[in-house]
Amino acid sequence: MPKQSNSRDTVFFCTECGYESKKWLGQCPACHSWNSFSEEPVVKTGSKASQKASGKVRSQRKPVPLKDIDSYTEERLDTGFPEFSRVLGGGIVPGSLVLIAGDPGIGKSTLLLQAAIRLAEGGRKVLYISGEESLSQIKLRADRIGFRDGDLGFLSETDLGTILELLRQEKPEVCIIDSIQTMYSEDVSSAAGSVTQVRECAQHMMMLAKEENIAIFLVGHVTKEGTVAGPRVLEHIVDTVLYFESGQNGAFRLLRSAKNRFGSTNEIGVFEMRSNGLSEVLDPSELMLSDRPEHASGAVVTCLLEGTRPILAEVQGLVCETAFGMARRQASGIDYNRLNLLLAVMEKRAGLALSRCDAYVNVAGGMHVSEPSADLAVVVAIISSYKNIPVPDDTLVFGEVGLSGEIRAVRQVEERIREAKKLGFRRVILPRHNAAKCRQEEGIELIGVRYISELFRLLG
Q1: 15: pLDDT confidence band, cut at 50, 70 and 90?
Q2: How far, in Å, CA of 302 to CA of 314, rounded?
Q3: In 265-395, where does DSSP find H-type helix?
Q4: What is the pLDDT of residue 72?
Q5: What are the angstrom distances between the C-alpha of 378 and each of 86, 284, 344, 447?
Q6: Which of 99, 112, 231, 354 has its CA 20 to 30 A from that of 89?
Q7: For the segment 380-430, what is each residue's pLDDT rounded down to a tens digit?
Q8: H-type alpha helices, 61-159
Q9: Which of 197-201, 305-309, 374-378, 427-431 bottoms out in mean pLDDT, i.e. has the lowest?
Q10: Rounded to an integer, what distance in angstroms lies between the CA atom of residue 342 and that of residue 350?
Q11: What fold characterizes domain 74-282?
């Protein structure tokens, strides 16, 4: 256990959530994480802000009534990446502070450099500040990506005071800080990357972004648990939090939004890493189904919704008689507990003797399914493998399964059907309630089901 400091100039911070304590604690009372407290010096300042907080200086600012506030729509800046702009909510909002985090080498710097190049080529003034790479290293990457011309400046610097002064002088429209963990303020005595330094630097960046109307992107590292390294308050300071991650097979990259004050958090962007940088995957459904087996039992295609985007994915099931006393279950791409629940429903409501069988379910392409509309596809895949009956290749399945074996309605059915028709599907098995209210599409047959027992007749 660390020694508790007797000095009044230090305090203990939780590195997970930013909780502050005067003494070391084994477990954080806020986020309940163990051994997460770090000792940091207290930032002392005699600024006007601290005097206002103590009541020594009276503020001259007064609250403004809501009716007197001008309402206007700020023009968003196009990143040049439709996938990137979609996740941001339609483009970059001037004066916003965006945090993008991901594993080392995932492509965060490449993505932002490509966006900076396209913004500069579109006539925007952009400043790229790196604390991890030299200017020659950045130039090598820019040449590989293919930078031609534009108002794009580069700087290799880690001192916060120098960066803030330069931003006030240059006044770029977009600034990229790579990364926030390398920045340091001389007013804080702790090392760069510490809890106090990260929080102090992010706070100054936030105030500058609002004052000068500069859109600032902060690159952040992640912990082994996949969360942003540093205090959790960093996520509360910024306007948008984006996570850049790879699929389970590493074939493509996914950009997800965990927080967005200017748009939805349900959108995703799909990219593929190539020799000349990141390339957008504009049709991820075709990518997911590119290696789909033909006339194979236990394989069925479903339609998932990532925000407003329908994506087709293949659900694979494998059922075989167990060689041990206890049946084994394994899930890849779906929740393990959800799989057990669906297997119990099939055994109780459909009469399948699955308790004596091993069951494996996989979502091809490295996708992770979180919405319940994939329940019916999992059930069909298990039945298809159990009966050894292939599902027709032109059949799409989606719907939520209840504990009574009923098939419940899902949302945005027409978007899913249009996506299926675009990729050549001719038959859709869906909840009966959705089929009754959905407009019939030419060239595609809609089959509504009420209970999972009806699936045996459809599968032959």
Answers
A1: confident
A2: 6
A3: 284-288, 336-349, 375-387
A4: 57
A5: 30, 21, 13, 17
A6: 231
A7: 999 999 999 999 999 999 999 999 999 999 998 999 999 899 888 999 999
A8: 82-88, 108-121, 135-145
A9: 305-309
A10: 11
A11: Rossmann fold (3.40.50)
For 172, residues 6+ apart whose C-beta sits below 8 A from its C-beta are: 125, 126, 127, 153, 214
pTM: 0.74
Are β-strands 400-401 and 407-408 bridged in parallel, bridged antiparallel, or unpaired?
A: antiparallel
399 Cβ contact list (under 8 Å, min separation 6)? 373, 375, 376, 407, 408, 409, 410, 429, 430, 431, 434, 449
Whether the predicted pLDDT of 1 surpasses 50:
no
Task: Return the CATH architecture of domain 287-459.
Answer: 2-Layer Sandwich (3.30)
Give the position of tokens 């910024």. Answer: 238
Distance CA 423, CA 246 (A): 25
Name the amino acid, one letter, at 371: E
Roughly how many angstroms between the first and final C-alpha of the chain, as a whole number? 65
pLDDT tens for 74-107 read 688 999 888 899 899 889 999 999 999 888 888 8
pLDDT average, residue stretch 261-268: 85
Orientation angle between helical segments 160-170 and 195-212, nearest 10 degrees = 10
Distance of CA 224 to the CA centre of its chain: 16
Name every residue whose Cβ is closer than 8 Å to that of residue 278 and which is 6 or more positions away in sequence: 107, 110, 111, 114, 253, 271, 272
pLDDT digits (tens, 9 = 90+) for 149-184: 788 999 999 999 999 999 999 999 999 999 898 998
Look up residue 329 and give its two tokens.
Answer: 């279950």
CA proximity to 363, closest of 439, 428, 289: 289
